[in-house]
């Protein structure tokens, strides 16, 4: 028993010594990036999938749990693969060119995005739309910071909020098929299901009646 404990401690010491080696830092960073991508993807997707599945999807309890697990796995896997690919390509470019330049990050991420997130499915679509909204905000702030567009005299956010909500509700009412399915489900619950009720039970307690009355 003691021999097994000694072997484990020796293995841990060897692993810790390896992790301190600067020459392996780039390769180890790629591996840890894979780990962090997998963990972060699971943390982000699991609660979202749990809420959306039990709110809007039909099926048995087991089917719902399976759907949550599949969505969580897909998000976790894709993010892990992307971080691994991005950091690996970034390290390779830096090593080949002898220094880091901004274009390396762009190119590595483009390749990773094409390889990992190029499949048009619900999980990838949600991730890309999430990033797109933040990119637009980031580029707008960068344009102001660089002087490409003047600093607004008033906060433009109220106007942006009005245009975003006006556009999305117009699309929902008249071109619903253009919106992502999960957004359609959310808006149906908020704006369409609230037009229908029969008595107090499905007016205040439930969204829809489950009986055949």
From TrEMBL:
It comes from the Eukaryota. Transmembrane segments: none annotated. InterPro entries: Pmp4. GO terms for cellular component: peroxisomal membrane. Coiled coil: none annotated. It holds the Pfam family Tim17. This is PXMP4 protein. It comes from Prunella himalayana. The lineage of its organism: Eukaryota, Metazoa, Chordata, Craniata, Vertebrata.
């Amino acid at each position: 028993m003691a021999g097994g404990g000694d072997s484990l401690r020796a293995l841990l010491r060897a692993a810790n010594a390896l992790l301190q080696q600067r020459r392996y830092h780039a390769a180890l960073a790629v591996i840890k990036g894979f780990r962090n991508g997998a963990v972060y993807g699971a943390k982000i997707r699991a609660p979202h999938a749990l809420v959306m599945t039990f709110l809007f999807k039909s099926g048995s309890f087991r089917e719902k749990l399976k759907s949550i697990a599949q969505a969580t796995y897909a998000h976790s896997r894709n993010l892990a693969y992307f971080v691994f690919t991005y950091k690996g390509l970034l390290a390779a470019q830096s090593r080949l060119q002898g220094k880091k330049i901004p274009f390396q990050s762009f190119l590595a991420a483009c390749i990773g995005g094409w390889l990992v997130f190029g499949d048009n499915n619900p999980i990838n679509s949600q991730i890309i739309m999430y990033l797109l909204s933040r990119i637009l905000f980031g580029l707008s702030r960068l344009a102001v910071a660089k002087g490409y567009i003047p600093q607004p005299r008033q906060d433009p956010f109220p106007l942006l909020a009005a245009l975003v909500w006006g556009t999305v509700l117009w699309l929902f009412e008249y071109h619903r098929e253009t919106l992502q399915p999960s957004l359609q489900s959310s808006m149906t619950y908020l704006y369409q299901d609230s037009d229908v009720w029969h008595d107090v039970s499905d007016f205040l307690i439930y969204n829809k009646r489950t009986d055949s009355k």
